[in-house]
Amino acid sequence: MKVLVTDEISPEGLAPLQADPRIELDIKLKLPKKELHQVIGDYEVVITRSGTPVDRALVEHAKNLKMVARAGVGIDNVDVDACSEYGIIVVNAPFGNVNSAAEHTLAVMLSVLRNVPVANDDLKGGAWNRAPFTGLEMKHKTLGVIGLGKVGGRVALRAKAFEMDVIACDPYISEKRAEDHGVKLVSLEDICRYSDIITLHCPLNDETRDMLMAEHFDKMKDGVIIINVARGGIINEQAMLDALNSGKITCSAFDVFSEEPPKSDVIWDMIKHPKMIVTPHLGANTHEAQKNVAIDVGKEIIKYMDGQPLSTAVNIPKFDPDLLEHMRPFMGLMEKMGEFISELAPANPNKLTFDFHGEVARYDCAPLTVTGLAAILDKQTEQDANLVNARVLARNMGIEVEEIRNAEPGSFSNMITVIMETPVGKRTIAGTLWDGIPKIVMMRDFMTDFVPEEHMIVLNYPDKPGALGKIGTILGEANVNIGNMNLGRREKEGEAMVVLSVDSPASDEIVAQIGEAVEARFAKAVHLKKA
Tell me, what CATH number does 416's domain have? Predict the structure, then answer.
């Protein structure tokens, strides 16, 4: 097997690959794009860090490529969809640099509080000033941790050792897991309101991009300190710069930026700001971390050659092919159900139950459970949730997963029910296949009958005359066309559950207007992957 290394990788991590007689290892660093495109077709595996964009253009030239091994947690530089289209496995190393990132967070936090960089520069410049660099203690400061995953959890534990009061915001971590860390779960608004220091440890995706905007800074304490050793783009950089200039932020430390290397004036103005301490994405740059991630991806390559299951693949399922063919339609149903309930359910699930009823329960339902679990957890963790890692992610979040099978026939020949238990109660959704088409047949205790579609609106309100007319009028005035409508009721003029399929997205403002008009107990727009 021919393996190409395109970025600096720890020699200790590469040693097992070099010692394997089945592997021909070539190290070609910083190749120009044109030259890389010319040679990539000769290789079956490419090992990269963040310096090599594995984009669609590269994939299209990689005629023999079987695996992309990203020596690190982030896969921002890898077009996973393109790799999947061409049958290329993508693996990463999500655990090797966790400790390094947590320690770097504490390093820059202490540097901020004790004015280490500016005092260092001042003394080396020949001065002896003490009063201007009077610092702050960590003890009894309130630390707000946004994202209590692998890195955030370690930061929280270490902060507790400094006798800090730690609060955290992470809608996909159970209360038990937070308690294990000695941390109180709160909302993002409370993080902004009560924290003396805020540190971010969440992935960059559509939900976290620009998570902290100007309105969030307005709610923060005067003199708040912001630490970002996670991903650039989670904090809106213009809003950050404005908060620095206004004095809202007393000091800040950033290791990551939305452009790396930086190009825009906004980012450079922020980097050069006297209240900023900055490092060039060094969170994972320790000898130990680089060795660990190289070893981890090397192990995955050996496993692939030996035909063993992969531990950190981000884009492949691992199931018996015969069973997979039978389960494939139900996997599609589970994916839609999981995605749907994840958009509607409250935060901090403690338990997920997958109940299989009817003929489908006669088979091994593990593929279905993992498919639903991955759909629920996807995009909510530092690592993408998929069929390979969903159970591990759930365990790391402290979420209990239960599978129930009952082969006795019920209301449908096959029905799958997902129950999500949270601190504020249970949420239930059930679905079936009708001529191979996924349908949702129950939400809470309301009987429903609809096909999950790309753009939907879910409403729960008192069933009063004229309510549907108000909904239609508001959507019509907003130029949003209703494709389908499903109404579930317990009794006449009681409580109604309405699910609307619409041809285009309805804004939050429109949904809020509808909710107010019909006195809704619940009103939410749902956006699913295109069916």
Answer: 3.30.1330.90
Q: In what order do the strands lie in the sheet with 165-169?
A: 184-185, 165-169, 142-146, 197-200, 224-228, 249-254, 276-278
Any domain includes 413: yes
Active-site annotation holds for 231: yes
Name the DSSP class of 508. Answer: H
Token representation of residue 83: 């790799």
How far, in Å, CA of 453 to CA of 153, rounded? 36
Q: Which residues of the chain have pLDDT under 70?
A: 317-324, 379-384, 388, 491-493, 530-531
Closest CA to 399 of 428, 374, 436, 416: 374
Residue 296 lies in a domain: yes
Plot region of 425 (φ>0 → left; ψ -120 to 50 → alpha; else → beta) = left
Residues 340 and 221 occupy one common structural domain: no
Which has the closest alpha carbon to 67: 299, 313, 306, 292? Answer: 313
Both 56 and 68 in a single domain? Answer: yes
Catalytic residue (one of 70, 201, 281, 357)? 281
* Residue 283 falls inside a structural domain: no
Q: Is 260 tagged catalytic?
A: yes
Give the pLDDT confidence score for residue 346 in this predicted structure. 82
Co-location of 355 and 374 in the same domain: yes
Q: Are residues 77 and 187 in the same domain?
A: no
Of 137, 189, 207, 260, the active-site residue reads 260
Q: Are residues 330 and 386 in the same domain?
A: yes
Q: Give how many domains the chain has, as a whole number.
A: 4
Same domain, 273 and 125: yes
Query: So what's the pLDDT on residue 530?
Result: 59
Phi first, then psi: what are they for 89, rounded to 5°? Answer: -75, 140
Question: What is the C-alpha to C-alpha distance for residues 524 and 497, in angstroms, rounded to an integer?
Answer: 12
What is the side-by-side order of every strand in the sheet holding 89-91? Answer: 24-27, 2-5, 45-48, 67-70, 89-91
Residues 353 and 229 in one domain: no
What is the per-residue pLDDT for 258?
93
Question: Are residues 402 and 264 part of one domain?
Answer: no
Instruction: Find the catalytic residue in 104, 177, 231, 357.
Output: 231
**Domain end marker among 452, 472, 500:** 452
pLDDT tens digits for range 177-199: 899 889 999 999 999 999 999 99
d(CA 219, CA 184): 20
- 3-state per-residue secondary structure call for 394-444: HHHHCCEEEEEEECCCCCCCEEEEEEEEECCEEEEEEEEEECCEEEEEEEC
From 428, 452, 476, the end of a domain falls on 452
What range defines the domain where residue 496 resides? 454-531
DSSP-derived pairing of the beta strands 249-254 and 224-228: parallel
CA distance 65 to 86: 9
Q: What is the CATH number of the domain that holds 481?
A: 3.30.70.260
pLDDT for residue 175: 87
Helix (H) or strand (E) holding 518: none
Q: Of 198, 151, 203, 131, give the one whose Cα is nearest residue 383.
A: 203
Exposure string of 406-430, with b = 16+ CB inside 10 Å and e = fewer, is eeeeeebebbbbbbbbbeeeebbbb
Residue 58 within a domain: yes
